[in-house]
Structure formats: structure tokens, C-alpha cells
Design goal:
The chain is mostly beta strands. The chain has helices at about 15-25, 45-50, 85-90, 165-170; strands at about 1-5, 30, 35-40, 60, 80, 95-105, 110-115, 120-125, 130-140, 140-150, 150-155, 185-195, 195-200, 210-215, 215-220, 230, 240, 250-260. The strands form three sheets. Strands 7-6-18-15-9-10-13 form a seven-stranded antiparallel β-sheet. Strands 14-12-11-8-16-17 form a six-stranded antiparallel β-sheet, with no helix packed on it. The radius of gyration is 20 Å and the shape is elongated. The two termini are about 30 Å apart.
């Protein structure tokens, strides 16, 4: 079996030489080409990045840390200190591969890429808030919203433990950083970020967060000039600039992310 090491971008949480030693010690060859699996060590941000760019099955490996601002690595199947045991399970075939359909993101009908976890339109450094519309169409779905706030997040099930779940972390008595809401496998989540105003056409409802069936077409546009950015499709911290003339479309992607699930995690990880 061959494995590809995926730790580029930022400061590695584990020294590359140490990671290589553990992998080779488990009897797995390291290769950049024709690898059978990818091993991603880091947090949810790095998992998200490689989840949208790699086609081979990926094992997400977290690193234990007492840093309160560190990544929670909700998507990790194992931790680095338990990696030798996890690799032995993989070598003996004691794992499953869970496929996650990605979301395709387009700007003015031009593809920007596909995302594994989430994509969001958010205010930039030069705006206090943005004014935007969200239109969603699909089987049994017809939503037309307007909002004023920091922005809006569109999340897959894999991304639901991230930005999409910020309301869970602030509504608890002690602001539990591990709290999250898991959306369904066949759903896409929509979450407004710190809105000061929302309005849904035809209804006396102002939902902060909700889900729609996967396959729905989601369109986001500004209705007033602002410094707004689209994040999730690029590694750039500046994101992709969005102006009122732009229309962002989010829909089912054509590719999927293959995630290795260790059988010790059982059906709960695949539900």
C-alpha cells in the first residue's frame, strides 16, 4: 500500500520526518504518485482544503492540543498519537470509504471550483455589514430572502461542525466550543452570520439557520455596494471579491471526496 502525505500550507502540526517515520513503521510506502490513500494531518481547515482537491481516499488525523484557539478537528478519524494503530487497521482492510458529494460554486455562471465542507459570502475588512439576497429553488423549495449582517454560510454535512454551527457555540451557558448541529446527508445547510435583519418573502419568518434538500440551486447576490468576499474555493486569505453585479450560484458538484472511516467508529460516523 502507498500513502501520500498531505500537510502543506501553514506550519505543520507534526514534523514531516516524524510523520514519515510513523507511516513507514506501519509498513506503508510513501509516494507522491499513484498513492492508494492520502494522510492529512492537521485541523478542519486543512481537512477542508485537501477534501476539495484530492480524489484518493483520505484519512484525517488530528493532533491533541490544549490550545483553546486550536482547531477542534471534528472530522478527524484518529489522532497522531493513535496513528500507528489506525494504519494497521487500514493495512488489514478494517475500514470503509465514505463518499461525500461536493458543492459546485460559480460566479456569474463561471465555475470557481468545488468544495467539500462549506463556502460563504462574508463582509471584508472595509465593511461593517453587507446587504444580500438568497434565492433557493428546487424540488419542493422556493425561498427568497433578504438579509443584513456579516454574511451567509452554505454548508455540506461534512462542514456542519464548522462555521455553520456557530449559533450552537454561543447559545450554551458556557459557550461550549465543541457544540455543533449535524445536518442530514441529503441536505445542504444555510446559516446567516450575525444578522441584524432578515426577511423571507411571503412568510412571517426570520430563520437564522435552516437546511434544504441537496440538489437545490442556491443563488446569492448583494443589493448594495460593499466590501464582500467569497471564501472556500481558494487558499487565498483575500477570498474572491463580490460586487452587486455578481451572482454566486451553489449547486451539486460533479466530484466527490472519499473519506476513510475506521470501523471502530462504527455506523455513527456514516449516519
Amino acid at each position: 500500500m502507498k500513502a501520500k502525505i498531505l500537510i502543506e500550507g501553514g506550519t505543520p502540526k507534526v514534523p514531516p520526518d516524524e510523520l514519515s517515520r510513523v507511516i513507514q513503521g506501519a509498513g506503508i510506502e510513501i509516494s507522491e504518485y499513484k498513492a492508494d490513500i492520502g494522510i492529512v494531518v492537521g485541523g478542519d481547515g486543512r481537512f477542508s482544503r485537501y477534501g476539495r482537491t484530492e480524489s484518493i481516499p483520505l484519512l484525517f488525523v488530528g493532533v491533541r492540543s490544549r490550545d483553546p484557539t486550536g482547531s477542534r478537528a471534528h472530522l478527524a478519524q484518529t489522532t497522531f498519537d493513535e496513528l500507528p494503530a489506525a494504519l494497521r487497521m487500514i493495512r488489514t482492510g478494517d475500514y470503509l470509504v465514505d463518499e461525500h458529494i461536493r458543492l459546485a460554486v460559480l460566479k456569474n455562471a463561471k465555475p470557481l471550483g468545488e468544495v467539500f465542507t462549506d463556502v460563504y459570502v462574508q463582509r471584508g475588512a472595509e465593511s461593517t455589514c453587507i446587504r444580500y439576497k438568497v434565492r433557493i429553488t428546487g424540488e419542493g423549495v422556493g425561498i427568497d430572502e433578504a438579509a443584513v449582517g456579516d454574511g451567509v454560510v452554505v454548508s455540506t454535512r461534512a462542514g456542519s461542525t464548522g462555521y455553520y454551527s456557530y449559533p450552537d457555540r454561543i447559545k450554551g451557558k458556557w459557550m461550549d466550543p465543541t457544540a455543533f448541529t449535524r445536518i442530514g446527508r441529503d441536505e445542504v445547510g444555510i446559516c446567516h452570520v450575525a444578522p441584524t435583519y432578515t426577511e423571507r418573502s411571503g412568510l412571517n419568518q426570520h430563520p437564522l439557520r435552516y437546511s434544504v434538500p441537496r440538489g437545490s440551486i442556491i443563488k446569492i447576490s448583494l443589493f448594495r455596494e460593499a466590501d464582500a468576499r467569497l471564501y472556500g474555493t481558494t487558499d487565498s486569505r483575500a477570498g474572491v471579491k463580490v460586487v452587486p453585479e455578481d451572482e454566486i450560484t451553489i449547486r451539486n458538484g460533479s466530484q466527490s471526496t472519499k473519506v476513510i472511516v475506521l470501523k471502530k467508529a462504527g455506523k455513527e460516523a456514516l449516519a
